[in-house]
Amino acid sequence: MISIAIHGGAGVILRENLSPEKETAYIHALTETVRTAYAALENGASALDAVELAVKLMEDSPLFNAGRGSVYNAEGKHEMDAAIMSGSDLSAGAVALVNRVKNPVSLARAVMEKSNHVFLAGAGAEEFAVKAGIELANKDYFHDEFRFQQWQKINGTNAAKLDHDVSLNEKKFGTVGAVALDTSGNLAAATSTGGMTNKLQGRIGDSPLIGAGTYANNQTCAVSCTGHGELFIKHVVAYDVHCLMYYKGMSLAEACNYVVNQKLTEAKAEGGLIAVDRFGNVALYFNTPGMYRAMKTPSEEYTAIFK
Amino acid sequence: MISIAIHGGAGVILRENLSPEKETAYIHALTETVRTAYAALENGASALDAVELAVKLMEDSPLFNAGRGSVYNAEGKHEMDAAIMSGSDLSAGAVALVNRVKNPVSLARAVMEKSNHVFLAGAGAEEFAVKAGIELANKDYFHDEFRFQQWQKINGTNAAKLDHDVSLNEKKFGTVGAVALDTSGNLAAATSTGGMTNKLQGRIGDSPLIGAGTYANNQTCAVSCTGHGELFIKHVVAYDVHCLMYYKGMSLAEACNYVVNQKLTEAKAEGGLIAVDRFGNVALYFNTPGMYRAMKTPSEEYTAIFK
């Protein structure tokens, strides 16, 4: 059994603001990404390789708020975060506040495999990227006129916005992630984000935090979250799904449903998560009107934006 | 019922390397800190105020690897991390990689109370400190000849050391933390650290990560950890104690004992934690030869270093 699921962010996606052309572009990007990563799994790629590949493909797309499509912070700069975790041995890597790394998820993986640390941030993370031979990109690569207008619209206010909150005619959404089960029975999760438009410089959300936005453990599941990062941190969301399965004996669907539709909804924490368990079951839960998502198993393929 | 516990780091403290004078100094500092914070609780201070106060006192002491006594990273700089969390509403604040903030725990509290974010790092965190009126300190304040020699001894090697691993005649230990229960039944936890000697620039450990090194929830307990940060991150240690109590129905002692002496020991993750539950019970667990620690309740006062 192999299985993969991806997300490209959750939020208040208004159908009237998503042109048919945009919707088609998102559906196409999500479907192509999940198919490519699934094919890799079929060819024997590890879950770790598959989630890194899927996240890289979305980081490289300007459609998603991660890597190339990252939003602007309050200083008009990009600050990207990412994490990756292997369920087989709990090894993990994470980076935060990098601005010239083409694929933050690959830097997170290098931190995991080539350093003694789990989490590197800022200039130190970029120095490590150079030493580890990670591909860099210049400012122009990350510049996107839509993102820049988004930022200009709220710059000077105190508002930090999930990018879907910015009232422009077209809206884009934050965070990408992937979870997978490979032919060896190993689980993995990865998450990457460009953060919140106009966020304070130095703000770190849940995405790169092991246990909050990203978690994988072969005994239970792999999880990647998207949503209001501050609230997801306080609720240690990804690890909570694991604990409900491991300590309470819930199924993947029960645990995800409880966390998203009960705990997070009661806490007014908007967002969602994707997860896969060790049997290959997939869960795609969100308490917002939409979540960019796709999944593929030997018996099912599915791509959707709205509920 | 009120209750407070503090730690000043866990590790391989060798009795032969701790002079009687040093041992007396540690015992005195720990006892004074726990008594001062306890007295504040008696006078109606919140658990949040008490843990901030206790951590500040230890940050101000050159004896502990936090604030003033922080170790040097691989670049010969100080990089400090801290977090604080309130069990009553899960509000939390955390900072990482700050180098000119006198009391990182107070900056963490300001992030919690005066920003829309939970976690700020690096230059952005320091900019916020200035705006929030947090006291800064210059490089001289953080300079300590012992710490500098510690760093010089392993600089140029790839080794990042918990400060107790540095083979000097006198050894000091990383991380400080506090947990408390106040008269209103609210729990709080705080942790602060100067990191690992010669760590890569930008490395973030478990201390400032909500759920890993620091967690508080009125439904169960407040926890502050100390130990090998990378492994504590992977095991989401502080939140794990909560989950074992909340989902499995374990007592505070059962949960802490299981996490420290079973899970962490099996994972070769050296360290310990302090915790207090909503009934005021205190737990001080570590799988190393020693942990600088103290606790005080209406019926008990205790300070110790070794097992």
Number of domains of chain A: 1
Q: Main β-sheet of chain A, in a few words? A: 8 strands, mixed
Which structural category do the helix and sheet elements of chain A fall into? alpha+beta
Give Rg of chain A in angstroms.
17 Å
Unreliable runs of chain A: 164-172
User: Order of strands across the widest beta sheet of chain A?
Assistant: 4-3-2-6-5-1-11-12
Please tell me the overall pLDDT of chain A: 91
Tally of individual helices of chain A: 9
Percent strand of chain A equals: 15-25%
Distance between the termini of chain A: 27 Å
What string gives the helices and strands of chain A in order?
Answer: EHHEEHEHHHEEEEHHHEEEE
Helix content of chain A: 25-40%
Characterization of the model:
The structure is a homodimer of 307-residue chains. The longest helix of chain A is centred in the N-terminal third of the chain and has 23 residues, at 20-42. In chain A, strand 2 and strand 3 form a beta hairpin. Chain A has a single domain (3-306), classed as (Glycosyl)asparaginase (Glutamine Phosphoribosylpyrophosphate, subunit 1, domain 1, 4-Layer Sandwich). In chain A, helix 8 packs across helix 9. In chain A, the strands form two sheets. An eight-stranded mixed β-sheet of chain A has the order 4-3-2-6-5-1-11-12. Helices cover 33% and strands 25% of the residues of chain A. The first copy, chain A, has nine helices and twelve strands.
